[in-house]
Design brief:
- By secondary structure, this protein is an all-alpha fold.
- The protein is 76% helix and 0% strand.
Length: 185
Amino acid sequence: MEEKIDRRIKKSRKAIQSAFLTLLLHDGFDSITVKTLTEEADISRKTFYLHFTDKYDLLNTIVQEQIEGLKSTCNESEANDLIESAIVWFHYFEQKKDFFCALFKSESTVSFRKQLLNCLMEQIGGVIPDVGITQDRELTIRFLSTAVLGIVESFVMDELDSDCEHTAKQLGKLLEENLSLISKQ
């Protein structure tokens, strides 16, 4: 049976997360303090600390929710190759562009990058066939995932001149071409 969470707890957590997202988009992660967060959420510092140990714990919670959302979106899609998978990823990032852009801009969000890289490695690893790769499979997955992470960052930071579909399709083709080259070696 699923454990019920008290409505007051839900309300407080929602207020904290909403205030965090507002401040993140407006001021950036590095300038957020627990004081400004509690003022924006209209709660006491004590209430904040009942839910989170600090702003990094809050960030980690929100990032985990976003990563789970990405995984869920991927699992619900019917993508069966790298191009289709890339399109699913980029549509997700396009919908949450402001959030991801704010995180990529921050100097203090290393854990976000690691979590996103691990998620991409899981997704790419699930699409890459076990057979045909003569190179180290884990290294290949990490190499491709790191490349994808760089393109995702450029996309959400508006550093690319192409739209979501075009970027995703090009990335998918690049992934497939690299896998083809690797499997021939």
